[in-house]
Amino acid sequence: MDVLVDGHEIELRYMEKPRIKNAYLRFSGDVLVVTAKNSRKAEQIISENRNWIEKHYRSIKESARLFDTNSMMFGGGRLIALLDRSAMRSVEMNKDVIIFHAKDEDSAERLADRWLAERSMLLMSGIANSIANEKGIAFNGIKMCRGSRWGSCSSRKELRFNRYMCMVPVKLAEYVAAHELAHTIELNHSAAFWKEVCRLCPEYRSLRRELKRYDSYRRRVFRKLE
Ligand SMILES: [Zn+2]
Prior knowledge:
flat; 3-stranded mixed β-sheet; 6 helices; Zincin-like
């Protein structure tokens, strides 16, 4: 069972469920998950939905990477990322170009990481405070975190947001803030929780779906200026 899109073989996860009648397709990140009664049914649904698979896979590939060869996402747009070898350490952003002045690539990556965390902190504290003030919610401070989650909220109502939050479109950052603020009222993901999310961010359903497209963001590559 191979699925090729633009010469790339898509990673497949096949889940055999003998009890089900039909077969289902979905993407988890860039992995195509096929749930079917047997492999014949799985192959059938793949061949019948080739157009859907190609379209979705391309859109996942286009939008998912926050860091890519020579470019970096910021606010949902793409910046050309350049490394300027220099003794000083600073970041310069000019329209659609971002230049990291640093002595080498490792040092530039650390610089980029810290710069993104600072920008994310500014962004998320602005958004969280404005939603909290407008909707009458209290929380106990904000921290930036590493790892694969976009955000979390402790039982002490401390909010944590991913240090790469400023890279995705602002409306997605607003959804993440609303989600974590709703956890200050309901710590679980119950119906009452989603009702609170809806009060804070009425468009949350589509935004949540869109955010899933940005789940892989670990690589970063600079084009070097000599
Ligand atoms: Zn949650």
